[in-house]
Amino acid sequence: MNYAKQYVNQPLQRVNRQQPCPVCGKTDWCSFNDRIAICMRVESNHLVPGKMGGWLHKLIETPSYYKPVETAATVAAKASAEVCDRVYRDFLSLLSLAPYHIKELSKHRGFTLEEIKEIGFKSLIEVKPWELCKRLIDMGYNLKGVPGFYQAPNKKGNGYYWCFNYSPGFIFPILDKEGKIQALQTRLDKPIGDRKYQLFSSGNKETGSSCGVPVHVAQPRILKDKRIWVTEGALKATILSQRVGAVVLGTVSSNTWAPVPELLEQSFPESEIVEAYDCDKYTNRHVKTACECFRHAITEAGMQLAEAIWNNQYKGVDDAVLARCEIRYKKIN
Q1: What is each CA distance from 28 to 127, 191, 214, 263, in whole angstroms?
Q2: Which of 39, 115, 292, 294 would staple 257 via disulfide (CB 3.0–4.6 Å)?
Q3: Coil, helix or strand for 166?
Q4: 50-59, 104-113, 165-174, 279-288: lowest mean pLDDT where?
Q5: 240 near 278, Cβ under 8 Å?
Q6: pLDDT at residue 307 above 60?
Q7: Mean pLDDT, to the nearest integer, of 180-191?
Q8: Which residues contact 271 (CB under 8 A, 6 or more apart)?
Q9: For 23, phi and psi rounded to 5 degrees?
Q10: Cα 293 to the center of its chain, rounded Å
Q11: Which residues contact 294 (CB under 8 A, 6 or more apart)?
């Protein structure tokens, strides 16, 4: 594996439907080049350090579909938090919310109409990306470095226009600890493979930028529980926050918890932490490993930790609270 390690800093490319992960075969989260892959699902003896995480795998042979990554010089530095927040808010203001998404959010997700409006849910369907980008530019924005937006070559091949990629669904904000919109995520109308959510990102595009693996900080309208909850998924965190009246941190996935301990130490140093990972942490070894690593990090940081427990007929804690299921707590330390 030492041979593979020397290539970890070589350009990597994100997997997609045309170029799936050579290790797990999935079309999202992972990355690879011609020599190694960083898989977010299949474990190896070499855990990749840092916020992104994953496991390093040496490839026996170069995948037949591999294409060398174009120079990274075209990728822009991420815009400031203030710029991203302003652009995203005005971007959302240009969208509406379809009736079927309102029904989904109210009937199946438990949001009131007032909460739906306040949180900022919008439909990303039947839009012309270049037109929306032009409207943002006409408002005075420079979209360079704002994750999700990028420049695509025009048909004549002599210039570029601003654009973004999307798959139909409802889009919503991922907030930072100050309430700024740090990223956007779409709940897809039709899953792509096993992927139901899609981050608004453009890290491998001309003058685009990656949103990374942001941690959503969901804050309730009325604070009832002073503990800080941690769960998987921004939408789940938003639902849970409103129902239990607590600040809830939502990670992109079970194994992207690395930014959480630092965020907790900086912003909530005296708070007790409640871990509320999905119930598949008892049956899925990858989720179980991620959960154990998270718990260890919180304990090592000297913070008080408890596990939220509910009837496992409900996979997620959001489903449990919407069903008015009793939540119990087990002290970890």
Answers
A1: 24, 12, 16, 25
A2: 294
A3: coil
A4: 50-59
A5: no
A6: yes
A7: 97
A8: 226, 227, 228, 264, 303
A9: -100, -55
A10: 19
A11: 230, 257, 260, 275, 277
pLDDT > 50? residue 3: no
The sign one gets for the Cα dihedral 8, 14, 15, 18 is negative
pLDDT score of 70: 53
Residue 123 has pLDDT above 50, yes or no: yes
Question: Distance (Å, rounded) from C-alpha 156 to C-alpha 151?
Answer: 14
* CATH assignment of 216-331, among 1.20.1070, 3.40.1350, 3.40.1360, 1.25.40: 3.40.1360
Cα–Cα distance between 78 and 72 in angstroms, integer? Answer: 13
Domain with CATH 3.90.980.10 in the chain: 74-199
The domain 74-199 is classified under which CATH number: 3.90.980.10, 3.40.50.1000, 3.40.50.300, 3.40.1190.10?
Answer: 3.90.980.10
Three-state DSSP class for residue 61: coil
Return the pLDDT at 157. Answer: 78
pLDDT of 291 > 90? The answer is yes
Contacts for 330 with CB less than 8 Å, ≥ 6 apart: 306, 307, 309
Q: Name 299's Cβ contacts closer than 8 Å, sequence gap at least 6.
A: 305, 332, 333
**So what's the pLDDT on residue 214?**
96
Answer yes or no: is pLDDT of 136 > 70.
yes
Across-strand partners of 55? Answer: 39, 47
46 or 117, greater pLDDT: 117
Which residue in 187, 188, 163, 189 sits closest to 174, CA to CA? 187
Q: Could you tell me the two tokens for 6?
A: 């020397």
Q: How far is CA 264 from CA 34, 152, 272, 297, in A?
A: 38, 39, 10, 11
Residue type present at position 94: L
pLDDT value at position 187? 98
Lowest mean pLDDT among 14-18, 117-121, 145-149, 228-232: 14-18
Q: Where in the chain is the domain with CATH 3.40.1360?
A: 216-331
